[in-house]
């Protein structure tokens, strides 16, 4: 029954324990999220721009707006979460086990993703020549190669040229290679890309250590993480391409359904790389792209806003876990949330949430925030009445 009951504390006692004012706290979180997400997206877009060999014009006119759009998405998601957290407390007069995490995060993520979609649609309308051409799509095209992006149904021409170098199915669009070398080349190419990206990300810290610890310099090129990102991207591509070729051989046709199956199998490669940000992003975008391709081909029913709702629900589930049972959340996701909120997510008064029976405070070593008794409704235990 405890899971269904209400606890009467206010949002200062449970949530924003660093400041009694709801407005100030929401402002703090929004400002912090803005700063942190800018630091996340700026290098990401810069690397993507270099990889896509963008012209000078892009760096001058488009790079900064694109970074800011993505930044605004994470910022609204974070800022609105705490806004809804406080609104729900005011409406409900307390907290239920679902309202602090899932309840507040659901509308926040929904609005944030709607906003991002609106901007994305505007942007792509301004620049796109042929429909779907966002950052994610070109990233996907870069990774799996243009041969494997399903084209519109019916327009694919199956040129049956005989490949002299080895076995190649007549439906395969990789005309230069046979199926095996096509997959191997894909692996080598993306392995080196992953390896180089990770090296580049390590350069600033290596530079700092160059004078203090010169012996650490070789670790820039030779360490586990470099190989992890390489192995992830490499195996992702080779599984994807290999499955696509294999299915063409087995079924003797080219089918957009293959891309979906291949995408799901390629998701296995995420085990090589435990970065939630990159692998989940890629995977979700892949599924999304395939889903829309499937709709175009008439294979999947179209639900309006299906992806938006899906995103909002999965984010809300993560927030629910982050509030009520951090021990069950992926550590990298929790670290990301801490970083985005500048550590404030850990300041929640989780001992009060223990009544819901999810061991909310288990990993916080008895942490109790120092609250100003003038603003609390129920005095914290241990203080004189
Ligand atoms: Zn509040
Ligand atoms: Zn092939």
UniProtKB/TrEMBL annotation:
Pfam families, sorted: TMEM135_C_rich (PF15982)
Transmembrane residue ranges: 33-51, 63-84, 96-115, 227-247, 259-283
Keyword ATP-binding: no
UniProtKB keywords: Membrane, Transmembrane, Transmembrane helix
InterPro entries named in the record: Tmem135 (IPR026749), TMEM135_N (IPR031926)
Chain ranges of the Transmembrane protein 135 N-terminal domain: 8-118
Keyword Hydrolase carried by entry: no
Subcellular location: Endomembrane system
Membrane-protein topology: Multi-pass membrane protein
GO cellular component: endomembrane system
Family in the record: Belongs to the TMEM135 family.
PANTHER family listed in its UniProt record: TRANSMEMBRANE PROTEIN 135, TRANSMEMBRANE PROTEIN 135-RELATED
Biological function: Involved in mitochondrial metabolism by regulating the balance between mitochondrial fusion and fission. May act as a regulator of mitochondrial fission that promotes DNM1L-dependent fission through activation of DNM1L. May be involved in peroxisome organization.
Protein name per Swiss-Prot or TrEMBL: Transmembrane protein 135
Gene name linked to the record: TMEM135
């Amino acid at each position: 029954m405890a899971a269904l009951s209400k606890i009467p504390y206010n949002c200062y006692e449970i949530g924003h324990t660093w400041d009694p004012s709801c407005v100030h706290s929401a402002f703090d979180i929004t400002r912090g999220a803005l700063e942190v997400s800018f630091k996340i997206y700026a290098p990401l877009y810069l690397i993507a721009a270099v990889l896509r060999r963008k012209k000078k014009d892009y760096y001058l006119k488009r790079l900064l707006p694109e970074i800011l759009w993505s930044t605004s998405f994470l910022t609204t998601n974070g800022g609105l979460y705490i806004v809804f957290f406080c609104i729900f407390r005011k409406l409900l007069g307390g907290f239920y086990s679902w309202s602090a995490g899932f309840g507040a995060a659901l509308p926040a993520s929904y609005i944030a993703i709607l906003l991002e979609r609106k901007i994305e649609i505007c942007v792509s309308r301004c620049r796109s020549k042929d429909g779907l051409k966002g950052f994610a799509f070109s990233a996907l095209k870069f990774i799996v190669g243009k041969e494997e992006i399903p084209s519109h149904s019916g327009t694919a021409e199956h040129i049956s040229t005989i490949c002299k170098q080895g076995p190649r199915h007549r439906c395969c669009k990789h005309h230069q290679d046979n199926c095996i070398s096509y997959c191997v080349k894909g692996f080598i190419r993306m392995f080196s890309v992953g390896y180089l990206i990770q090296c580049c990300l390590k350069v600033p810290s290596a530079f700092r250590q160059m004078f203090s610890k010169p012996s650490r310099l070789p670790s820039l090129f030779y360490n586990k993480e470099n190989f992890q990102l390489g192995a992830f991207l490499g195996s992702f591509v080779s599984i994807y391409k290999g499955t696509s070729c294999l299915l063409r051989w087995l079924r003797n046709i080219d089918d957009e359904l293959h891309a979906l199956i291949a995408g799901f199998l390629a998701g296995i490669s995420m085990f090589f790389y435990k970065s939630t940000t990159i692998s989940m992003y890629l995977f979700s975008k892949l599924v999304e792209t395939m889903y829309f391709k499937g709709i175009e081909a008439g294979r999947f029913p179209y639900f309006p806003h299906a992806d938006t709702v899906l995103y909002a629900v999965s984010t809300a589930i993560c927030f629910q876990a982050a509030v009520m049972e951090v021990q069950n959340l992926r550590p990298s996701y929790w670290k990301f949330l801490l970083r985005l909120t500048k550590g404030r997510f850990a300041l929640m008064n989780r001992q009060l949430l223990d009544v819901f029976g999810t061991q909310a405070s288990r990993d916080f070593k008895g942490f109790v925030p120092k609250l100003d008794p003038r603003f609390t409704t129920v005095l914290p235990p241990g203080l004189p009445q």
